[in-house]
Amino acid sequence: MDISQQILVVGDAMLDRYWDGSVDRISPEAPVPVLRVTRRYDRAGGAANVALNLAALGARVTLLTLAGRDEAGDALERILREAGVRLERVADPAYPTIQKIRCVSRQHQMLRADFESPPLPGMLEALAKRYAALLNQHDLVVLSDYAKGALSHCEYLIERARGDGKPVLVDPKGLDWSRYAGATLVKPNLGEFKAVAGTWADDAAFARLAVALRKRFGWTYLLVTQGEAGMTMFNGRGMVHEPARVREVFDVSGAGDTVLATLAWRMSAGDDAFEAMRWANRAAGLVVAKFGTSTVPRDELLASMREAGPAPAPTPLPRRNGPARDRSESCVS
Fold this sequence. Notes:
13 strands, D-glycero-beta-D-manno-heptose-7-phosphate kinase, PfkB_dom, kinase, kinase activity, alpha/beta, Ribokinase-like, 333 residues, UDP-N-acetylmuramoyl-L-alanine:D-glutamate ligase
């Protein structure tokens, strides 16, 4: 693989903090469990987790994001620096780094507390200027949208990248997908897709909705992840479905970040999107067997891929009229 390719990740980064311990009693103040914290640790979340996944796969990656000049922002920077990720932090002293604190007992979440604020005036303009300066140093762009504000003006980011001939991969959020028009590949999960495209009665109707959405917004590829039912990729030639490759589901946190990162890694190396999906599907099956937001090391994924067969060619869109399978979203998001 050509590791000279440079990947630029832009989006909503956050610090995932875990307070781990045991519960032995109920509070006398209210009918709630008391967590006796015995261990605390931090992990990178959101767009930062995408960047970490790319670094774990051996990619050369830069993360452009909004963050605060605070302890949480410094902790996030340390995690990324230790993994070899170049961080471009657009900061403001009055802007707090996004944090999610998870209270955990016996590897089960009891409570999550979120700290976040919308971008302050001028931060998005500063991010756009930094993006324009970084773009010519990179070969592929990944937009990781967690609806926290960093990608509020993503139309400009996509237009600028495509004008420079750079592929753009997007993990979308919200209901207005016109914001992602012109992207190379868009990767919603099943729930996100249904919220925008509507419901369907059978697999053929699902495929027609996907094709219509892809054409409407000018995407080269549309990938719909479907949890335990796998994932399906559409483009102008047809579609390919990959069944899930999951031995054990332990925690689905961040699985969508792993899928997005693996797609970007393989496409930057020259694979077409269908082959990249095959790798991403394997990576998803590995990461859901780990606790919390995690990464899949390159060697681990390579070993898993030795068991995989070749990628199938795209098939014509189905015209089945039978009942659709229940594709509940559980493994990949």
